[in-house]
Prior knowledge:
mainly beta, Umud Fragment, subunit A, 7 strands, 13% helix
Amino acid sequence: MNVRRMADVLPDLVVSFLREGKTVRFVANGLSMQPVINDGETIVVEPVVKLRRGEIYVYEKGDGIIVHRLIRIDGDRLTFRGERAIDNDPPVARDRVIGRVVTVKRT
């Protein structure tokens, strides 16, 4: 029997719903976006319509998803960084960006 934990399934569901044009909400996990988004807070994410530098997006990375701020747009290559990070994330292809954070519900 192949059983997947909810934490393993959630990124797949988020990606699927956003690619279908649906708004999703889920609980943030991690510290990289503090103090803007704290671990355990609920975030609401809409599908991407237009990319704007300075906004917070969700992008696919491997089998997971990352929620970080868009720092630079260079053609099809995008640069993101977590609020607490010193270094930027590796470049991300535009088609890997699936959603924009529109609300953070504080706990």
